[in-house]
Design brief:
By secondary structure, this protein is mostly beta strands. The protein is built from six helices and 18 strands.
Length: about 425
């Protein structure tokens, strides 16, 4: 048993620091929840990465479930973003009290939006029936929007093109995402609680001033399914609470509100740690990474967005004996996957990966990020959420993590392998 944890005094000091730090966090006041990643009802959900094979019905797809934890009805505004961080489509989902809506993203590319409607558009209670423990309210703003019609061909063509890196007629023939040479759509999704139905995107003026709600009522999860390959993995989406953020703190949608905190959504940190497995093919790990990109616009196809290239994330890899190596991960866009053996020069079988996702493009604050690790070992497939290594609101790193010179090592990282 000692071999599992007794790797010398350095490992024991790190372990003791982790325990002390976790105890300190547990004793912190309840308001600190706004500066931590936790699975609680939230005002915004982030699906950090999705894939949908557009040519193969049995290929990979992503299924998202949204739950309203309140007994009162609410409207959720769902936005699809490309891997360049450009919002290309949004729609509303009405949720009666304690309602659950499951969305197979493949359906959107075939023109089908989930059919929901508030009492004013659904007086016969057919589309969104009210249950015995829930409310069904009338949102007058949803008239003419819900229940939604099937999408016209021009919209589905736009979705297929923009989320595979191709030219979209609705964007003047320009491209808004990376072309990866296949028919698999990539990007990420946000879901915001709103005061009523809206056609605006988060990038539009007035969205945060009038549309969004501060009600922390949503929870969610997602599955990435590939019937042809016989694989499935799932994990909770990122839950971002809304509230009165501490003065001077960051916010999740900060880049759209001049970092004023107007959106009220708690931010994400930029430094993470997560365990990985290896070597391939007996066992392998990949990291699903989302990071905040500067505000961009569609570009002439064949070109990158105006802010590209972003400096690549810095990665510290440790094995289980705390031997260390550094790597620069190839991840130029907002959403992507890092293969810990194919994408990174990793000499270790298994251990701990520490990632710094800041790219230095935001004045006065680091870029936000999020990391999930998916590990496969034979027929087993599982995913875990990476551990945040800093206070979300202030960006202050948890010092107990970086014992025995870790902090000094991180502070001198460059964006290339040292």
């Amino acid at each position: 048993m000692d071999q599992l944890y007794d790797r010398g005094p350095m490992k024991r000091r790190i372990l003791h620091g982790l325990v002390a730090g976790l105890l300190a966090l547990a004793a912190a006041p309840a308001t600190a929840v706004l500066c931590a990643i936790d699975q609680v009802p939230a005002a915004t959900l982030l699906v950090p990465f999705f894939e949908v094979d557009l040519d193969n019905f049995s290929g990979v797809t992503t299924v998202v479930a949204i739950t309203n934890t309140a007994s009162t009805a609410h409207v959720a505004h769902v936005t699809l973003w490309t891997d360049w961080g450009i919002g290309v489509f949004a729609f509303d989902v009405y949720l009666t009290g304690h309602d659950v809506q499951v969305i197979n993203l493949r359906d959107l590319f075939n023109g089908f939006i989930p059919r929901t409607a508030s009492r004013g558009q659904d007086p016969a209670d057919i589309v969104s029936p009210q249950g015995p423990r829930s409310d069904d309210d009338n949102f007058a703003s949803c008239a003419g929007i819900l229940p939604p019609p099937n999408l016209p061909q021009s919209i589905t063509d736009h979705l297929r093109a923009s989320l595979t890196g191709g030219p979209s007629a609705m964007l003047g023939g320009k491209c808004s995402g990376s072309a990866r040479g296949d028919s698999v759509a990539h990007g990420y999704v946000t879901v915001d609680v709103v005061n009523g139905c809206t056609l605006r995107l988060a990038t539009d003026v007035g969205y945060f001033e009038t549309d969004t709600s501060m009600a922390n009522v949503l929870t969610g999860d997602m599955m990435v399914v590939s019937p042809a390959a016989g694989t499935l993995f799932s994990y909770p989406v990122v839950h971002l609470e809304a509230g009165a953020l501490p003065p001077g703190s960051r916010s999740f949608y900060g880049r759209y509100v001049g970092d004023s905190g107007l959106d009220g959504r708690e931010p994400l940190p930029s430094t993470y740690a997560v365990r990985y497995l290896g070597p391939a093919p007996a066992a392998d790990s990949e990291l699903l990474v989302w990071r905040e990109s500067p505000i961009g616009s569609p570009a002439t196809c064949g070109n990158s967005p105006a802010w590209a290239p972003l400096p690549t994330p810095a990665v510290m890899l440790l094995d289980e004996a705390t031997q260390t190596t550094y790597a620069a991960a190839s991840l130029p866009f907002a959403a992507g996957v890092l293969g810990l053996h194919a994408g990174l020069a990793n000499p270790f079988d298994r251990g701990l990966a520490i990632l710094r996702l800041d790219h230095g493009r935001f004045a006065g604050r680091p870029a936000q990020g999020f990391v999930l690790a998916r590990s496969s070992q034979g027929a087993l497939d599982h995913s875990v959420e990476a551990l945040q290594l800093e206070d979300n609101c202030t960006g202050a790193r948890f010092p107990f993590i970086f014992a025995d010179g870790f902090e000094a090592g991180l502070s001198v990282w460059s964006w290339a392998t040292p």
